[in-house]
Design a protein that fits this description.
Elements: E1 5-8, H1 15-26, E2 29-32, H2 33-41, H3 45-52, H4 54-71, E3 75-78, H5 87-96, E4 98-103, H6 106-112, H7 127-145, E5 148-151, H8 157-169
Parallel strand pairs: 1-3, 1-4, 2-3, 4-5
The chain binds shikimate-3-phosphate.
Length: 173
């Protein structure tokens, strides 16, 4: 297996924050799939959803993942919350490195994303219901797609990063 650390999980689970800390600590390159897609398309995620729709965005994610699979080693990869939904993406992620699921509750997501306007799937009214529905649909998908589940709702990001490193460095090669 390649030596990458992959973070998956719901919006607001801390993938980007924890990922940056992990990369620094491990001396790995940090890669964020949302950021790379925005750069490639020269558009924000919100504009990509509004202009081309969710399915087109999912295809961009799959295409990017294929590219990362060719090139990345010794990297921390923070993924968009919906990236593991496609089965082929989930399978590819697991060959790309150790996949950590940052698990959080609905309450944590709502608290962290209060006032956020960058997530098209949570835009508009009934945010609590949207989070609840998506989270309950996705929790088992994230579990199946990952090698490790990490409780990312309680401790500080530094503690979450420590938990991931402890597990990663104790794994047999
Ligand atoms: C999405 C999560 C977002 C982004 C897009 C769709 C999702 O990334 O990819 O808005 O389907 O959960 P974050 O998980 O980094 O917020």
């Amino acid at each position: 297996m390649k030596e990458n650390i992959i973070l998956i999980g719901f919006m607001g689970s801390g993938k980007t924050t924890v990922g940056n800390l992990l990369a620094k600590e491990m001396g790995y390159t940090f890669v964020d799939t949302d950021e790379l897609i925005e750069k490639k398309a020269n558009m924000t995620i919100g504009d990509i959803f509004a202009t081309y729709g969710e399915e087109a965005f999912r295809s961009m994610e799959s295409e990017l993942l294929e590219e990362l699979n060719e090139t990345l080693d010794h990297a921390v990869i923070s993924t968009g919350g919906g990236l593991p939904l496609r089965k082929e993406n989930a399978a590819l992620l697991r060959t790309l490195g150790v996949v950590n699921y940052l698990q959080v509750t609905k309450e944590v997501v709502l608290e962290r994303l209060k006032g956020d306007e960058t997530r098209p799937l949570l835009a508009g009214d009934n945010v609590e219901q949207k989070v609840e529905e998506l989270l309950s649909k996705r929790d088992s998908i994230y579990q199946d797609a990952s090698h490790v589940t990490i409780d990312a709702g309680k401790g500080a990001p530094e503690q979450v990063a420590k938990d991931i490193i402890l597990n990663y460095t104790s794994m047999p090669n």
